[in-house]
Amino acid sequence: MKMRKQTKIVLIVLGAFALIALTAAPAKAQAAQSGQAAKPSYTMPEYNAFTACQQEKDPNQQVKCFDDFVSRFPSSTLMPYVYQLEVPDYQKLNNCQQEIAVADKLIALDSVAVGTKLQATLSRLQAFAQCYNASDPNATADLTKDRDLAVQGQKMLTQIPKPANVTDEAFQQSLKQVTSILDNQAAWADMQLKDYPSAVSAYKDAMTANPNDAGASYEMGTAYLAMNPPQAINGFWAIARAIDLKVQKADQVQQYLRSRILAYEQPGCDSQVDQQLNNMLQLAANSPEPPATFTIPSAADLGQIRSNSTILTIISDLGSGGDKATQTWLAVCGSELSAVSGKVIDVQQGDGSVDFMVYTGATSADMEAATTPNMDVKVYTTAPATPPANPAGASAPPEQITPQPDVVRIEKGDPISFSGTIVSYDPSPFLLHWDDVKVDPSSIPAAKPEARHGRGK
């Protein structure tokens, strides 16, 4: 959390009148003791002891001085001013437990101005976030108190008067900053309590006050993803938005988002997620909410596409373009199909392999009439030195290729039947590329007998 830095900024404005009250009180007391005002509610020894502590610059020495003051004057009416000075002392000493204890005393006082209570509230919330221990047996109760105090702070904020020497614009900006801090703290507590819907609501409020709060956007995304069931689209979008807003460690956050999309979709080829992620980042840069038409298919969605796909539906879907092609390719990239039949349109000899340009269609008559291929079927005739890379980022390890040197006997116009792995496709002119192919031996013509020379016996 970045609460410490933000708190210092906003309290410059919101704490101005509270600081005046703090420093003016001893002066009034002194004047009163001189007979210039009504008799004060504390004695001169109290005043002198308080002033001596107030003038102490070292926080360690100041809190020791105030401990002595409290032991000598436990019911002193100067106690609110003691607490106001002790809170920042314990903050400087990084003693969050004591900071919380003193802030609670200050907040509980009815005589304290609302601005002073709000200062104490902000300090207390920050201190709790620093020393929160999830294994503490009172963790749930403490978190609930912390969240409720953040909500109470919002009510305090509505009662803050504008200092006379501050412009309306500056004052409103400070109010927004404090609102964002309080909403973030309430959301953080909700996250620890696993109340994810409430956390999302609070983070949304924080971003209403500060639309460029990258941290709130990221945390809101993780809250969406932690729901049961997860709200994946909203979660992915909020995290993408955080990356666009330059969230801390944006590169790591982007890798985290990629991994969550992969786990959600389980696409045939991992690399397909990169294109989705880049598209999402471009869109989220201009919109805090995903468009109604924006979608990312789940693993169940892609699994259904795979189970319902045939070679003909794959070619039809991919050839149609648009979202249909995108989802189909996410599902079938890297898939292994068997018993695929077609007609060889052309044969392209390679170094250790043959590319058969093949057309497959719904009927034998359709294939017989074809003159343009819709598939590129690569068959190895010699074993490659190293197995080919996985198709387009497919997660399965590459398999050792078993060469089929006899496929060189397949010629243009021959029928062919094979099994293999879909690795890529060209949208226009359409061509589906295959690798790791095994041609059905029945498709390979028999070797022609060698011609005999000389007279036989």
Keyphrases for this structure?
about 450 residues; alpha+beta; OB fold (Dihydrolipoamide Acetyltransferase, E2P); 5-stranded mixed barrel; 5 strands; rod-shaped
Describe it for me?
- The protein has 457 residues and is an alpha+beta fold.
- Among the domains are: 3-162; 300-330, no CATH class; 334-385 and 403-442, OB fold (Dihydrolipoamide Acetyltransferase, E2P) (Beta Barrel).
- Helices cover 55% and strands 11% of the residues.
- The chain has 18 helices and five strands.
- It has helices at 3-14, 16-33, 44-54, 59-72, 79-92, 96-108, 114-131, 139-157, 168-192, 196-209, 214-226, 232-244, 250-265, 272-284, 299-308, 311-320, 322-332, 364-369; strands at 336-349, 353-359, 375-380, 415-427, 430-439.
- It has a five-stranded mixed barrel.
- A hairpin with a 2-residue loop joins strand 4 and strand 5.
- Helix 6 (96-108) runs antiparallel to helix 7 and helix 12 (232-244) packs across helix 14.
- The longest helix is centred in the middle third of the chain and has 25 residues, at 168-192.
